[in-house]
Amino acid sequence: MANKDKKSVLIQGNQAIVEGAIAAGCNFYAGYPITPATEIAEMMANRLPRIGGTFIQMEDEIASMGATVGAALSGAKALTATSGPGFSLKQEIIGYACITEVPCVIVNVMRGGPSTGLPTCPSQGDVMQARWGTHGDHPIIVLAVSSVEDSFDITVTAFNMSEKFRTPVILLSDEVVAHTREKFEIPDPEDVQVYNRVKPTVPPEWYIPYENTARGVPPMASFGDGYRYHVTGLVHDIHGFPTERREEVKAFTERIHRKISHFYKEIQIVKKYMTEDADVNIIAYGSVARSAIHAAKEARKQGFKVGVLQLVTLFPFPRKDVEEVLRSSKRVIVPEMNMGQIAREVKRVNKNYTRVVKLNRYDGSLINPDEILRLIREAL
Amino acid sequence: MVKHRDSTHLVHQYLRHNKKFPHVWCPGCGNGIVLGALIRAIHQHQYERDDIVLVSGIGCSSRMPVYVDFNTIHTLHGRALTFATGIKLANPKLKVIVVTGDGDSMAIGGNHFIHAARRNIDITTIILNNNIYGMTGGQSSPTTNYGDKSTTAPYTHIEHAFKISELAVTAGASFVARGTVYHADKLQKLIEAALTKDGFSVVEAVTHCHVQYGKLNKLGSNVDMMKWQKDNSITVQKAAKMKEEDVEDKITMGVLMDKPLPNFTKEMAKLKDRAKE
Fold first, then answer.
1. Chain A window 6-45: which residues touch B at a Cβ cutoff of 8 Å?
2. Distance between A126 CA and the closest CA of chain B, angstroms
3. Is the residue at A19 inside a domain?
4. What pLDDT score was predicted for residue B9?
């Protein structure tokens, strides 16, 4: 993919999300201004109409989420972006997208919370809201980006997963990644792997919109394709009609979970840096992962064997990879810009394999490598 | 025009044969009359079923889409217009129709309603106004009248009702009309007109909830409530000649607004052309 003729650009994480989304085929954006995600909307307003796509600034965050899901039902690849308060407002419709299995991507550029919190400061406080923000048992995919390059690549991945598994995908960025400018080579469109949702090919009268297939992901017709079917937020039978029959409710709930859980291998993405021989491993995600990698490299220079397990997929929680690191390490450090949301998941997986140490900042600042390094020295 | 009394077979043509009937509405409900008028209006225009998307929110009236053989979507309480906006913009060829109630569109969805009207997006919205939350059992809605009773206003309602059609006009819709379920033929004609309009078109269908509103306020049966509609409806033209205080308690029926205004869907197409230059 390296091409010397290719033009390098200096862009911020928010712009890389825009570039990644467009490369993935995004052609619809609905949003509402909110710091620190606003640049995504501004750049989409500029870019989408030029490629025939649609940008709309809606009257509020809820409306943005509704329009995003509506557009996806008409066949669009739709994106919306927000931050903490807006993310809270979108939750009801995110649940609707889960139950109706509508592919779409929701970016949450995390800022300090709760409530209006710290609008211009970074945080990772929305991790659990990303997983459990909407009510009811539901499957969801949550990915986290740590750099400008990630912001491009993982946005593409988010769209591909949403299309493949017919599910909303939450993409978590944070204020540091969003506004840090880095050198980046935008890949050629032909070098970007894009997955599009499977559409029905059967005659309309044969189409079963929520068929209980082995894979669990039924083909999805767009409105206007000639497959007239019903979409509802009520629990529905395979034809899309509301049902309260126990066996149908159970089968439905199990299928929408199965379509994710059967593909953990594909969905759970992690990056391993020097983890194999490490005495101390750091489990990190988002901008903190970069501080962790920096700290690990510095520690190695000083003679300590340190590695980093970077979680790209936060949910479904990559249990196997975390377990592997927990088994092989003398100590595991979990640095986070919150009071310990992923640390709790790590501890849940830890069956007395090792000691898990938290490093938390919740003062609106990023975690720098020195802080992690200090903890490594203490550990060894 | 297809007369509603001759049209049972026609309505049946548009119903979903694989749907588990019976429907959820109470015997004597006006919602079926509005659905009948909508189906006849659609039939009159000979729209392709594949091109129609019927969108609703939550409530009694919002159960309408599930019964009919179009692209149908039953969304969330108050949010029908937000979904409809995305559906329309991502595929402007679709004929997008929203059915909603007074609580759905005026309370929880009030903001979306005024902004859809302000944008003048090419969507037809039919609001079934029965002055109450029927599905949850008779609570006050934004169109419950001052002095009336509901289960959440046992000592009478002390708020004032929204006038839906007048609000739609003020918010910027290019076509606004009001009808009643008693005047079913007229209602059909108003829906027919709304469907042909460029931009945001609104039809307020005044209907009755004899089961909740009627019982709580001693308004009699569904027949009594429809008779009330008959006796208290005046045309827009007649209302214009009357004193404001005399019109206050009447149902002003007919077209309140019909003016070509810039249509958001078309403006969006033009914007894209400008951006590509």
1. 27-28, 30
2. 24
3. yes
4. 86
At A154, the amino acid letter reads: I
**How far from B172 is each of B115, B121, B169, B230, B264, CA to CA, in Å?**
9, 10, 5, 29, 12
Q: In the structure encoding, which two tokens stand for residue B99, read together?
A: 């059915």
Domain assignment of residue A339, given as a range = 271-379
Q: What is the 3-state secondary structure (H, E, C) of B15-43?
A: ECCCCCCCCCCCCCCCHHHHHHHHHHHHH
Would you say domain B4-276 falls under CATH 3.30.420.10? no
Token pair for A201: 């090919």
Of B117, B115, B14, B98, give the one whose Cα is nearest residue B58: B98
Cβ of B276 and A49 within 8 Å? yes
Using one digit for the tens of pLDDT, what is the confidence trace for A267-280?
Answer: 999 999 999 999 99
In which band, very low, low, confident or very high, does the pLDDT at A1 lie, cut at 50, 70 and 90? very low
Task: Give CA–CA dist A30/B86, Å, rounded.
Answer: 8
* A183 and A301 fall within a common domain: no
d(CA B133, CA B140): 6
CA distance A118 to chain B (A): 27
Q: What is the pLDDT of residues B199-224, one digit of tens each?
A: 999 999 999 999 999 999 999 999 99
Q: Is residue A261 part of a domain?
A: no
How many Cα neighbours within 13 Å face the side chain of A85? 12
Label residues B190-200 b or e (16+ Cβ within 10 Å = b): bbbbbbebebb
Total domain count, chain A: 2
Instruction: For an interface test with B, give the residue of A26, A28, A47, A59 to mutate (most B CBs within 10 A).
Output: A59
Helix (H, G, I), strand (E, B) or coil at B96: strand
Looking at residue A222, the DSSP 8-state letter turns out to be: P
Question: Is A96 in contact with A233 (CB distance < 8 Å)?
Answer: yes
Regarding whether A116 and A17 lie in a shared domain, the answer is: yes
Position A51 pLDDT exceeds 90: yes
Does pLDDT of A164 surpass 80?
yes
Q: Residue A211 falls within a domain, yes or no?
A: no
CATH of residue A312's domain is 3.40.50.920
Residue A371 has φ and ψ, to the nearest 5°, of -60, -40
Closest C-alpha among A74, A83, A11, A94 to residue A47: A11
Q: Which of A358, A60, A346, A26 is CA-nearest to residue A192?
A: A26
Q: Assess A60–B contact: CB distance below 8 Å, yes or no.
A: yes
Q: How many CA atoms lie within 13 A of A166 on its CB side?
A: 25
Asked whether residue A266 is assigned to any structural domain, the reply reads no
Domain positions in chain B are 4-276
End-to-end CA distance of chain A: 40
Task: Summarize pLDDT for A266-323 with one digit per residue, the tens.
Answer: 999 999 999 999 999 999 999 999 999 999 999 999 999 999 999 999 999 999 999 9
| A327 part of contact set with chain B, CB < 8 Å | no
Q: Is the pLDDT reported for residue A95 higher than 70?
A: yes
Facing residue for A241 by CB, picked from B66, B94, B275? B66
How high is the pLDDT of residue A4?
A: 54
